[in-house]
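Q: Could you fold this chain for me?
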Amino acid sequence: MVKKAIFLALFCVFAFGVNDTNSSQANKAYINSRHLNISFNSTNAVSPKIFVKAILQSLVNFGANIEDINELSLGDELVYSLSLDKTDGFNMQELKKQLERNSLFLKDIQINQNALKISLDASMAKISSIELKPGEENILDRSNTAYFVGVDKFETIKIRPRGTSMWFALIYGFDKNLSHLFTIKKDEMSNEIRLNLNGAKYLLISDKVDINNIKGGLILK
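A: Sure. Below is the predicted structure, expressed as structure tokens.
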């Protein structure tokens, strides 16, 4: 049934054009499955790290939970393959929208062994990465997108919400090559998170429920 649902959803995407943002039919393209493997590839990315960071931020903004990273190939063709979980299924037009926020543009979508393969034009890919200063309180203002933070100068870090924020912590840790190291996901409101980074060089910080819960931003030290 899952395979059939994926096939039908992809048929809608191909039939009505994934690149037509004005198509009402394309807006309805939907994969009714909680778990999905997606492989992203590009031959014209501005840089491998920006390509990977932009995809990660897009997926977190999309509301998908990253279960595993299956492949990371940084050769002439960049390939980034992930296993994702999303309780309300996968709206392809919404995913397209989130990718485009980071200037990742869909060129083609294919089905391959019950997974999606998405080819991207990543020549203009961009990401807002924040570099923190050790020994200081680093204030991150409210954002409508997940925070991508460089922590290579830290061994431990403390994160807490500011002001009226109601933060249900969702944090991914990555090494210098952007391989996934750990995930922290909290079901209760978080007043403070203390992390031993254990080799993590980047953190992707969001909210498990809604990024807008972080109304006052975050403080990292």
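A (continued): The chain has four helices and 16 strands.
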